[in-house]
Request: fold
Amino acid sequence: LSTDHYDLIVLDERALGEGIYVLIIELERSYPLIPVFALTANKSLVYQKHLVDAGAEDVLLADAPKEALE
Reply:
């Protein structure tokens, strides 16, 4: 990340598990100008709010229809 330019970062909660919170916090602290999005299948609004509170720009639902991403 420190040598290349990225427009955004998408983190997959399925691959990272609970470590997603720590990674979001660290990325927000180290690279505040790069938006971080969290991809999850968890539809709980409380869970999604925790991801945003950790610093995610937004949460993308893994099973969301393609139109929702436009």
Q: What stands out?
A: Strands lie at 9-12, 36-40, 58-61. Residues 60 and 69 are 8 Å apart (CA to CA). The helical segments are 13-16, 19-30, 45-54.
